[in-house]
Amino acid sequence: MKVLAVLRDPCFSPGAEEKDTAIMMAVVRRLRMTGSDVTITEECLLSDTEVAGADVVLTMGRFPATLRRLSCVDAKVVNTPESVARCRRSTLQQVMAEADIPAPPRAGAHGYWLKRGDAAGAMTADDVVYAADDEALEAQKERFRQRGITDYVVSAHVTGREVKFYGVRGTGFFRCYHAGTKQFCADEKTSCAKEKPACAEEKPACAVELQSAAERLATAIGIDVYGGDCIVCDEGSFCIIDFNDWPSFSPCREEAAEAIVGKAWSLMKAE
């Protein structure tokens, strides 16, 4: 199997360039161990020749030019350019509403989050800002407009505990953990739970429900390799506040790499 691995441009990995590269390299190492011929390229250096010779393209790319180039290739692409485009926040908000995925309300009593809508993630710290009230929100919107940003989303601030999650669609691989603590699996019987035990009260109570919601959202978008954040409220409900294509998988990199390799092989066998 000939594989092209496309690294994400640093502008899309503020403060996380090494981590984003590390997960792709972990996948590459495993593919090469299986005898696959793997070429690595940077997003800004992606060429038609490299794409034309690949059976599978594993891409973290987000530039519009990258997505256009990969939208018309014969190779199997993970993640597809169409799915990456749907991860832009303004589109994602609409998809979540249509798929009935738990999301923050548009207004609440604890302020707002204003996020740049024409991207899957923040490129600068100013792309995601908090506003304490309606007046502050309008002021932040005006700052966005002064920067030329007219595509943005607004959601209410939800109080609770933050949980980060990672998955590879259709493989059964899903990991979630409370921000700042060890990772946990949705299924306590998996090897992950045995190898990395922790206090029962630290495990997200909504792990199974979160996995179901995340997989449904990934399917609605068409994304294969994904991650995100959610807030678990005191009464046990949760809402997904962020969803991204191909995260760093830092707490579970080696396991994730194994699942991604399996996904690549399954796509080839499906032909």
Question: What is the topology?
Answer:
Elements: E1 2-7, H1 17-33, E2 37-42, H2 48-52, E3 56-59, H3 64-70, E4 76-78, H4 81-85, H5 89-98, E5 112-116, E6 128-131, H6 134-146, E7 152-156, E8 161-168, E9 173-178, E10 184-185, H7 191-195, H8 207-221, E11 225-232, E12 238-245, H9 253-269
Parallel strand pairs: 1-2, 1-3, 3-4
Antiparallel strand pairs: 5-6, 5-7, 8-9, 8-11, 9-10, 11-12
Helix pairs in contact: 1-9
Outline of the structure:
The protein is α/β, with parallel strands linked by helices and 271 residues long. The chain has nine helices and twelve strands. The strands form three sheets. It has a five-stranded antiparallel beta sheet.
Strand content: 15-25%
Structural class: alpha/beta
**Reported CATH architecture of the largest domain:** 3-Layer(aba) Sandwich
Assembly classification: single chain
Q: Taking Cα atoms only, what radius of gyration do you get, to the nearest Å?
A: 19 Å
How are the strands ordered across the major sheet?
Answer: 10-9-8-11-12
Order of helices and strands: EHEHEHEHHEEHEEEEHHEEH
Q: How many angstroms separate the termini?
A: 13 Å
| CATH level 3 topology of the largest domain | Rossmann fold
| Total of domains | 3
- The total of beta strands comes to 12
Please report the first level of CATH classification, the CATH class of the largest domain: Alpha Beta
Helix % is 25-40%
Estimate the mean pLDDT confidence: 88
Indicate the low-confidence ranges by residue numbers.
182-201
Tally of individual helices = 9
The coarse overall form would be globular
Report the sheet with the most strands, covering strand number, pairing sense and barrel closure.
Answer: 5 strands, antiparallel
